[in-house]
Amino acid sequence: MASFTRASLLVQLLRLALLSMLCISGDAFTPKDYSDALEKSILFFEGQRSGKLPPTQRLAWRGDSGLSDGSSYHVDLVGGYYDAGDNVKFGLPMAFTTTLLAWSVIEFGSSMPSQIENARAAVRWSADYLLKAATATPGTLYVQVGDPNNDHRCWERPEDMDTARTVYKVSAQNPGSDVAAETAAALAAASIVFKDSDPSYSSKLLQTAMKVFDFADKYRGSYSDSLNSAVCPFYCSYSGYQDELLWGASWIHRASQDSSYLAYIQSNGRTMGADDDDYSFSWDDKRAGTKILLSKGFLEKNSEEFQLYKVHSDNYICSLIPGTSSLQAQYTPGGLLYKGSASNLQYVTSTAFLFLTYAKYLSTNGIAVSCGATTVTAENLITQARKQVDYILGDNPARTSYMVGFGDKYPLHVHHRGSSLPSARSHPGRISCSDGFQYLYSGSPNPNVLVGAIVGGPDSNDRFADDRNNYQQSEPATYINAPFVGALAFFSGKAASGTLK
């Protein structure tokens, strides 16, 4: 009798588990959920702000920081974003973040009417900083503030930091084509965002983008070689600088429609990665994103100049879609795209964004992708992107949201200095460099909620350790969130209109 009871209980538990899985899969997230996640994904950037915070600042536990950045070098480098959980302003990921935030607004801004002003403010915060970095000194681009080696020896709030705010730059003598061309891309993409709402600012962004691109192209070299230990291994340019040059030219062409940039793309494309197929898209490697961006020209104009990019965009798609004969990507048992153990969700958010952007281009032109015997439609891409987005928001084996502050369960021990230390409001006294480590090693949840932050995410078996010391999984970054803004805007808009299948 006891055996029968245990068996019956087990059956009931299995039924409940199955019911639970059904309840949170498929149509788990409502229009309100996607809209809420979108708002929070943009709000996160306020937690990463450096500089003098505006009266409109909503994450009130943050305060002013880095107010003298650049002053010892007689330049104004106040502002911009801290890239992740530390207090350094790294130029390469900040510029990439700006480009992807701007691209999110360009493609899907119409799907986020209630958040468009906040999204523009997030773009402008870094665009303003990049403008200063590009125009402060002729023939120079300032690409970093803060010595990362010294910064990482401390665990302190940005409001308290007393480590050297060393400034790093690239020039004709010490080139940095990668970071300069990405900065050009960011300024050009941002110029499109403000073309209608602030034409004079837009024009200034575009003109500066052109000058920075010329500088990047004329004085070729990797900033990793010029700046070495200041940027490596943190944001070393592993893919070289050719991909950024093509990416930068592509964005300036899109912003300006200047035929000279089209000629540049035609002349240099094959030597700058157009023929290379790779399924990752990140702050380091721009090849896949460039192909999707340029494929728009072929799809809309059936233009021979861009045909190559449509072909390679299709190859990229085919390498990622499960069920095709050319699948190269790895997925976890729970269905998450898996590229690497450190900050894997950066690849997930960027890929989901490219899926949706390409789906938009395909749908507009009534075209599908042929992957051998398999046809991949725009709807297939949307479905695959939604699986990735929903996984991040909580539809996963761990039943946890990887966006801080979203859902009932999310990471509480985020690897982030400002979030993990008591705020300056609750603890006005300074917390020194070494005293802060007690908070890093504490088992208590972060006292300040970094709302909207997407952390590095689970491992290849869907396992996640909510541990502040496990930075590979628990550290957020601006470039994880930036493309997710566009993806959430898409699904928020589709869900609100009732057209999400």
From TrEMBL:
Single GO molecular function: cellulase activity
Which domain of life does this protein belong to?
Answer: Eukaryota
Name the family. Answer: Belongs to the glycosyl hydrolase 9 (cellulase E) family.
Which gene is annotated as encoding this protein in its UniProt record?
Answer: LOC115740854
Q: Which reaction does it catalyse?
A: Endohydrolysis of (1->4)-beta-D-glucosidic linkages in cellulose, lichenin and cereal beta-D-glucans
Transmembrane segments annotated in the record for this chain: none
Signal as UniProt keyword: yes
Question: Cross-referenced InterPro entries, in alphabetical order?
Answer: 6-hairpin_glycosidase_sf, 6hp_glycosidase-like_sf, Glyco_hydro_9, Glyco_hydro_9_Asp/Glu_AS, Glyco_hydro_9_His_AS
Which residues of this protein are catalytic? 415, 466, 475
Question: Could you tell me the EC number(s) of this protein?
Answer: 3.2.1.4
- Write out the entry's keywords from A to Z: Carbohydrate metabolism, Cellulose degradation, Glycosidase, Hydrolase, Polysaccharide degradation, Signal
Query: What is the name of this protein?
Result: Endoglucanase
Q: Which residues form the signal peptide?
A: 1-28
Q: Its Gene Ontology biological processes?
A: cellulose catabolic process
Question: Would the keyword Hydrolase be found if you checked this record's keyword annotation?
Answer: yes
The record places domain Glycoside hydrolase family at: 34-488
